[in-house]
Design brief:
Helices cover 4% and strands 59% of the residues. By secondary structure, the protein is mainly β.
């Protein structure tokens, strides 16, 4: 069997290889726990997988509607699609979540916190999303404090698909992919176009703020004999959004993003090895009455990873990296940073028990050495019930902007550190007829980096704590009918400084997503509904401005009209709920959308 054929049966290393299985990825296999393929039933980490079928079922161009099905995930957005979109996991900040697309770290090094703006990611060409909740810097390094989001775009497989939809606010969304997948060679190409007239981002505004984006990308593999597989991927997106910056303005922001990777898998008997290079470039140009703001962020990274079988029940997952990041702005920003390091984790699995423990040593040009530890355990109590627990440390280095911005930078900042504990029990599997999971967690963060609006600078504010409960449940009481629930309780506290004792801003204590889907046994008509319920919260750590609770109900339908064609439609925010996730900024009102999808 060639190395490329072996890729049909297991996901390869996720960073920077990207997860490809030309026949589709097994949802019970995950990457975020160890950096290498592992059954989700063997890890003590808390992980959720969203597959292509579920993404298609949800419909639309808004990634938040997809990821809000993960317990513990909330979003804040300054307006509609295209506006700055921040993801939080278990009360983390957006820049404390590590995001990878096809194995590439896509956060913008020139942004304030070096977090990823999810507005640049539309779901149409996504094949799979894996979300790890909790700190895991032992495997993933800097930024893996709140969690890790691993996104896989359309992988090589013979055939293709296309979707066209139109709806409210003159919104057009077109996406598609085409590919070929063989034993030793596979390639896929995908693309999307999105355009909307939008609505005023500012709640008090009157002029519409539109958004448009073009995105293209591709993935490929080439098998060389029985032991070597070459892999490559690339992605480009070009976006323009109209923003309300301090008023009902005509300001805009244009964003160009390029990312890619190239590497090779080596199947060496007892060891599987990956070596690769990744890069990401983000160019942003913002216009306003003060003139343009131009920023450029770059990342280049070399990775070497290996999974080594030391004994039938013992595996060593290990690797090393060297990374260069840089940023420039037209306001004097110009800095570079180098990071390097390595990690090792031992994984033991025998019968119902699985144990893992490891450590990472990271070394940077500014902050010296960082050592993080992690461990997890999973024990199957019966054929359907499993207990799990994990401990993970995380760290987040200050962004180049926070360190060196000419106006607000502070070169004396130190990295944030976190300790995360969770314990849980689950029954069944998420893709089975019955599933339930209960998780308790606690995370302490030290040296949290915040912005001081009185000194107009960044500083290490001290300690914050988040603890909570997550509940997942799914049931298929009869054939063709499924119910799902994802609930999270979150309790946050600022432990130091002028806001000591307060809740962290934009961290609602309660968030619930309920979903129901029914497929007609006659014509195959699919009807679905989603209810998102979020409790009230404060807009900032000062706890002076409150964001009201809200409930948003979406209704969906899909009708097969041919073996290869499907008509679909939905009404988002059916009851026209008026709410905000960031004080002073609008969210979408009721909207109706229709479309057609084909696959071949």
């Amino acid at each position: 069997m060639s190395a490329a054929q072996e890729a049909d049966e297991a996901i390869e290393f996720a960073e920077p290889a990207g997860d490809d299985d030309i026949a589709g990825i097994d949802d019970r296999i995950v990457i975020t726990a160890t950096g290498a393929p592992e059954s989700i039933d063997d890890t003590g980490k808390t992980i959720t997988v969203i597959d292509e079928a579920e993404i298609d079922q949800i419909q639309g161009a808004d990634i938040t509607r997809v990821l809000e099905r993960v317990p513990g995930v909330v979003f804040n957005r300054n307006g509609g699609i295209g506006s700055t979109t921040s993801l939080r996991i278990r009360g983390s900040s957006n820049d404390q979540v590590l995001t990878l697309v096809d194995g590439v770290r896509v956060a913008d090094p020139s942004s304030v916190g070096e977090g990823y703006d999810f507005t640049n990611l539309l779901p149409g060409n996504i094949e799979r999303i894996e979300v790890l909740r909790g700190s895991n810097s032992t495997i993933w390094g800097s930024s893996a404090v709140g969690g890790v989001v691993l996104v896989t775009t359309a992988q090589p497989r013979t055939g293709g698909s296309a979707t066209v939809e139109y709806g409210s606010r003159d919104t057009v969304y077109v996406n598609g992919d085409v590919g070929y997948g063989g034993d030793d060679f596979g390639v896929s190409v995908y693309g999307s176009l999105f355009n909307t007239e939008g609505f005023s981002a500012l709640a008090s505004g009157t002029e519409d703020d539109g958004f448009e984006q073009t995105a293209v990308g591709g993935n490929a593999y080439l098998g060389l004999g029985d032991t070597v597989t070459l892999r490559a991927s690339g992605r480009y997106s070009d976006s323009l959004v109209e923003i309300d910056n301090g008023g009902d303005t005509l300001d805009t922001q244009a964003t160009d993003q390029y990312s890619g990777n190239i590497g090779a898998d080596f199947a060496l008997g007892l060891a599987d090895v990956f070596a690769g290079y990744t890069f990401a470039v983000t160019d942003r140009t913002s216009t306003s009455s003060f003139g343009p703001f131009i920023a450029n962020g770059t990342l280049d990274r070399l990775d070497l990873r290996a999974a080594i079988g030391l004994a039938p029940a013992l595996t060593l997952n290990t690797g090393g990296y060297y990374e260069w990041t840089g940023y420039t702005t037209n306001y004097g920003g110009d800095a570079k940073l180098e990071r390097r390091g390595g990690y090792a984790q031992l994984d033991y699995g025998s019968g119902p028990l699985h144990l893992a423990a490891g450590a990472r040593l990271a070394d940077g040009t500014l902050f010296g050495s960082e050592v993080t530890f992690g461990a997890d355990a999973s024990y199957r109590l019966s054929d359907v019930v499993r207990a799990r627990a994990s401990f993970g440390q995380g760290y987040k280095t200050p962004s180049l902007y926070q360190l060196y911005d000419a106006y607000s930078g502070n070169p004396d900042l130190t990295p944030e550190h976190s300790d995360n504990y969770d314990i849980g029990i689950e029954a069944g599997s998420a893709d089975g007829p019955l599933f339930a999971a209960l998780t308790f967690y606690l995370r302490d963060i030290e040296n949290q980096i915040d912005y001081d609006s009185t000194t107009f600078g960044y500083f290490n504010s001290g300690e914050v704590q988040a603890k909570g409960i997550e509940i997942e449940a799914g049931v298929q009481p009869v054939s063709g009918f499924a119910l799902r629930a994802a609930y999270a309780y979150l309790d946050t506290e600022v432990r130091n400084g002028p806001n000591a004792g307060n809740e962290q801003g934009r961290r609602p204590p309660h968030a619930l997503t309920l979903s129901a889907d029914w497929t007609s046994p006659f014509a195959g008509i699919e009807v679905g509904a989603d209810l998102r319920v979020v409790s009230s919260s404060f807009d900032t750590d000062a706890n002076t401005v409150r964001l009201d609770a809200y409930e948003v109900f979406d209704l969906r339908v899909a009708v097969p009209v041919h073996e290869r064609f499907e008509l679909f439609g939905r009404i988002e925010n059916l009851f026209d709920e008026d709410y905000q996730t960031a004080a002073g900024y609008n969210t979408p009102s009721r909207g109706a959308f229709v479309g057609i999808r084909t696959s071949y």
